[in-house]
Amino acid sequence: MKVIALYNIKGGVGKTAAAVNLAYLAASEGTRTLLCDLDPQAAATYYLRVRAPKRHGSKRLIQGGKALDRQIRESNFPGLDLLPAKMGFRNLDLKLDARKRSRRRLAESLHSLTGAYELVVIDAPPNITLLSENIIEAADLLLCPVIPTTLSLRTWDQLDRFLRKEKLPRDGLRAFFSMAERRKKLHAATIRETLDSDPRFFPSVIPMSAAVERMGPERAPLFVYDKRSVAARAFRGLWDDIQCQLR
User: Fold this and answer.
1) pTM reported for the whole predicted model
2) Which of 148, 160, 180, 203 is 20 to 30 A from 10 in CA distance terms?
3) What's residue 59's pLDDT?
């Protein structure tokens, strides 16, 4: 079982859209996929039209085993299940801190799902906390969406320095450009220069797109209602890049 985490220190970079669409693509190809919504805002849960169970919270998430399995729900798409988020997930750091091996608790919990799923995609909250460290430890591929601007690249550098300082895994750290507008000279130049200088960036670039923005009102992955859009082709290219990385 492989684990991909969509993560960035800052929000508003297209993280949830990428998590939902990549999980959908994996499932559509026959890969048994679990999308874990660990962001208390629960945007991925909203997109997939899933409601969290009443007795659903952070304690069951880190227990693993049957306690975790009972919280998982089917989506409307074959092969794609969801661990829904609730506002109670904002207390996950407190629950993790009270446990032994607090950095490894999420990895151990997800490991209990081996055999049920071939791929886990995590939509991570945009912050640096003990939960973030757990997500980083659990991920085979830590995938960071980056807007092609100076400040967004600065955040990417801050993440890299944080991993070094805290001695967290860096081998699986990768990035891709998101919400890009190539007609903007600054965006185009930033993409070109970064792809030439940083091999950790995947070549596929996700554009700023009205089709992606429609995921909100449609409450569905992009491919359900606009599979021929430029953004859909870009996500397919990114998924191909990811599969090559995971082999």
Assistant:
1) 0.94
2) 203
3) 64
